[in-house]
Design goal:
Layout: H1 2-9, E1 15-19, E2 27-30, E3 33-38, H2 44-55, E4 62-66, E5 81-85, H3 92-96, H4 101-115, E6 120-123, H5 126-134, E7 142-144, E8 165-169, H6 178-191, E9 196-200, H7 205-218, E10 224-228, H8 232-241, E11 244-247, H9 256-263, E12 268-270, H10 276-279, E13 286-288, H11 294-306, H12 308-323, H13 327-345
Parallel strand pairs: 1-3, 4-5, 5-6, 6-7, 8-9, 8-11, 9-10, 11-12, 12-13
Antiparallel strand pairs: 2-3
Helix pairs in contact: 1-13, 6-7, 6-11, 9-12
Length: 346
């Protein structure tokens, strides 16, 4: 949406086709962007080809956003197509779906790269761009545009908690690595008896219950707090007063929460996976693990907490790093990418 607002500000016309939801208008304008809402969250994939066949002639370029599945736009229009992909799902299918959905998803994902082989690929992280190239797309067609922070409030520094506080911020789903963080914390609390773990983010009730049972099993329930979904103001307050963000996702498109935490003086220790290894400058703004394991994450997190000099360096570097990204720059980069797609097609 921030990119689209930037395109409108630059004088371009933007139409966003998306699914409909209860009580929403079928058509409307928000911040200059024309929204067309049709079908549902799944049936939109069936409606989109019909829309393209009827309306693609009105546009200069199509941005096909994929999260697991794309819209297969090149099959329904001869207009230039840019595929916008946050991450290649890959093993995420195994974490989020059971057999046979996971197998079908991975097979379809491999196939759709052939459909888009002549298109430009737009992603957030350089590490994801490299993975796309490994799937057979020429590296010259893969462009990474980092995602800056979006906030309705001005993040600010706050005094840290008086006891060690570790933080997880994300959707609370299996692929985001919350279980790995809980295992990490079980190692931490053996040495730091007063330590706490804060979990921020929403998830399905059955999975939250699984996690609570896991906490009981590891004997750490008393030191862990589930905050659920919180406001932006509360999120930044908790981020600012915690000491270290722990992120153990299977992979990320970018890992925006790492930048958000850095902006309020909270460095991160993360698994070495695509997205996270781009948003964290290892050894400068945080730590990217050499060994993706709870034991190693606990060891590095406690080391960072104890090393006050290194911690302050990471804090300072992290704030500078977070402030270096601006939406005005990002939208200019995406406009240039769309214009490049149009020139390639001419």
């Amino acid at each position: 949406m921030e990119h689209a607002k930037g395109w409108v500000k630059a004088g371009h016309s933007v139409t966003w086709l998306t699914s409909h939801y209860d009580y929403a208008q079928h058509e409307g304008v928000l911040d200059g962007v024309n929204f067309v809402r049709r079908a549902g969250s799944l049936t939109i994939y069936l409606y989109a080809p019909l829309y393209l066949l009827s309306n693609a002639h009105s546009f200069d370029v199509i941005v096909d956003e994929t999260h697991g599945f794309p819209f297969f736009s090149p099959l329904f229009t001869r207009k230039p197509v840019v595929i916008f992909i946050h991450e290649i799902a890959g093993e995420i299918w195994d974490y989020m779906f059971s057999f046979p959905k996971n197998v079908i998803g991975k097979l379809l994902e491999r196939w759709y790269f052939r459909v888009y082989k002549h298109c430009l690929f737009w992603t957030d992280a350089p590490s994801t761009a490299k993975e796309i190239a490994q799937r057979g797309i020429p590296a010259t067609q893969c462009v990474a545009i980092p995602c800056p922070i979006i906030s309705s409030i001005t993040p600010r520094l706050r005094p840290k908690e008086t006891v060690p506080v570790y933080l997880f911020v994300s959707r609370v789903v299996r692929m985001k690595g919350v279980e790995e963080v809980i295992k990490t914390f079980s190692f931490i609390i053996r040495e730091q008896r007063t330590a706490k773990l804060w979990i921020i983010g929403g998830g399905d009730a059955p999975y939250i219950q699984e996690l609570r049972e896991m906490l009981d099993e590891y004997g750490v329930a008393r030191a862990v707090t589930f905050f659920g979904v919180v406001s932006e103001e509360t999120k930044y307050r908790l981020m600012a007063t915690a000491h270290i963000l722990l992120h153990a996702s299977v992979k990320e498109g970018w890992g925006l929460v790492v930048l958000e935490a850095a902006s309020v003086g909270t460095p991160a220790v993360v698994y070495n996976v695509n997205g996270l290894n781009s948003v964290v400058k290892n050894g400068k703004t945080g730590i990217v693990l050499k060994d993706n394991s709870p034991r190693e994450m606990a060891r590095e997190a406690m080391m960072l907490y104890k090393n006050k000099t290194l911690y302050r360096i990471f804090q300072d570097n992290g704030r500078i790093w977070a402030k270096s990204f601006h939406w005005s720059d990002a939208s200019k980069q995406s406009i240039a990418l769309l214009q490049r797609a149009i020139r390639r097609k001419v």
